[in-house]
Amino acid sequence: MTTLVTGAAGFLGSHVARQLVARGEAVRVLIRASSSNRAISDLSLEYVTGDLRDAASLERAMNGVQRVFHVAADYRLWAKHPQDIYDSNVGGTKNLLEAAKRAGVGQLIYTSTVATIAVDRPELPNEFTEAKLEEMIGHYKRSKWMAEQEVLKAAKEGLPVIVAMPTTPVGPWDWKTTPTGKIILDFLNGKMPGYVETGLNFVGVEECAAGHLLVSEKGKIGERYLLGAENLTLKELLDTLAKITGLPAPRMKIPYGVALGVAYVESALSRLIGKEPGIPVEGVKIAQHKMFVDASRARRELGFQPGPVAAALERAVRWYQANGYVRAGRAKKMRLAAA
Fold first, then answer.
1. What local confidence, expressed as pLDDT, does residue 85 receive?
2. Averaged over 85-104, what is the pLDDT?
3. Alpha-carbon gap, residue 143 to 173, rounded angstroms
4. Using an 8 Å Cβ cutoff, are 237 and 202 in contact?
5. Helices 179-188/309-322 angle, 10° precision
6. What is the 3-state secondary structure (H, E, C) of the chain?
7. Which of 35, 71, 170, 211 is geometrically suited to a Cys-Cys bond with 9, CB 3.0 to 4.6 A?
8. How confident is the model at residue 193 (pLDDT cuts 50, 70, 90)?
9. What is the largest CA-CA distance in the chain?
10. Rounded alpha-carbon distances, angstroms, from residue 177 to 32, 104, 115, 172
11. How far from the centroid of its chain's Cα atoms is residue 239's Cα?
12. How far apart are CA 289 and CA 17, in angstroms?
């Protein structure tokens, strides 16, 4: 059986591809001509050059495929041209669904995000929480909500689709640096003078990838499964990083108004120079709401067993340090225990 993985050059997708290969699966990956295969170059893979926005390339990629893991997404909290995010996340997903339908694939695992359900509710949101588009903050969240609706619609129309919903993966091989990875790196490089009162659900990226395989094995068509581990405030995350590294955690709590004002200034400058702001406005607006969730369903129904987030953070720190992401002066101050 040939399995197609989109987004295999990225953070989570590379781990999904790696675990499939480790199981002896025949894996084909769709990769853009401009993308690097740095994270998967050591794997035995079949490559198809293409793009989610190019329907013809998806037809080639789907030829002879029985299963698809659609992990690819444009995960940015700032873009000079926001329409690019919608073209990839919504338009690209619709293209892929059509190609899968025409190819008659036996199963498609769609990687959504916790963001589509992590909204303010009296109780912790879960897979059965229904959220509205107007509750989505920013282009990334809106695009993923819209794409998920297309996927669920396709499932109702008979396409064998199951939805995996990662929370916030952390760990090694975040080589392009996701927004979450940037938080970790800002801490490691001493670029975080303070923190805002917010929180997320975190999960080790390797375990999240393993969860995708469990979704494929045990998940039900048309259902959603959260793949998460622990709800942590940003302060708790930074304190954990401090324990891992021996570096001091920031103590100053920054009011939202101050953070938002700085973000607007940085965004204005970014529009002028075309460079991503250090503090994106969307990121601050998102931070006003804790994205805590109840991720117990996957444990009960799929046998999902995520490990401690502290261990995943340590793996991330060691990888960033080993691969030159941490400034030399800061790296010298780190006190990691022997591996």
1. 94
2. 97
3. 25
4. yes
5. 70
6. CEEEEECCCCHHHHHHHHHHHHCCCEEEEEECCCCCCCCCCCCCCEEEECCCCCHHHHHHHHCCCCEEEECCCCCCCCCCCCHHHHHHHHHHHHHHHHHHHHHCCCEEEEECCHHHCCCCCCCCCCCCCCCCHHHCCHHHHHHHHHHHHHHHHHHHCCCCEEEEEECEEECCCCCCCCHHHHHHHHHHCCCCCEECCCEEEEEEHHHHHHHHHHHHHHCCCCCEEEECCEEEEHHHHHHHHHHHHCCCCCCEECCHHHHHHHHHHHHHHHHHHCCCCCCCHHHHHHHCCCECCCCCHHHHHHCCCCCCHHHHHHHHHHHHHHCCCCCHHHHHHCCCCCC
7. 35
8. confident
9. 57
10. 18, 35, 19, 10
11. 23
12. 33
Residue 289: other Cβ atoms inside 10 A = 14
* Cross-strand pairs, 231: 201
Sole residue written with tokens 């659609």: 70
Environment class of 130 (CB within 10 Å of its CB; exposed 0-12, middle 13-18, buried 19+):
exposed
Residue recorded with tokens 């700032």: 78
Q: Which residues contact 185 (CB under 8 A, 6 or more apart)?
A: 177, 191, 320, 325, 326
CATH domain 2-173+202-229+293-309 topology:
Rossmann fold (3.40.50)
> pTM of the entire structure?
0.92
Instruction: Please say whether the dihedral angle defined by the alpha carbons of residues 139, 140, 142 and 143, taken in this order, is positive or negative.
Output: positive
Mean pLDDT of the chain: 92
Residue type, 103: A
Identify the pLDDT of residue 260: 60
Q: Distance between CA 30 and CA 7 in Å, rounded?
A: 7
Q: Which long-range contacts (CB under 8 A, 24 or more apart) does 27-35 make?
A: 27/2, 27/3, 28/2, 28/3, 28/4, 28/61, 28/65, 29/4, 29/5, 30/4, 30/5, 30/6, 30/57, 30/58, 30/61, 30/72, 35/9
Q: Where are the domains of the chain?
A: 2-173+202-229+293-309
Q: Distance (Å, rounded) from C-alpha 139 to C-alpha 309?
A: 28
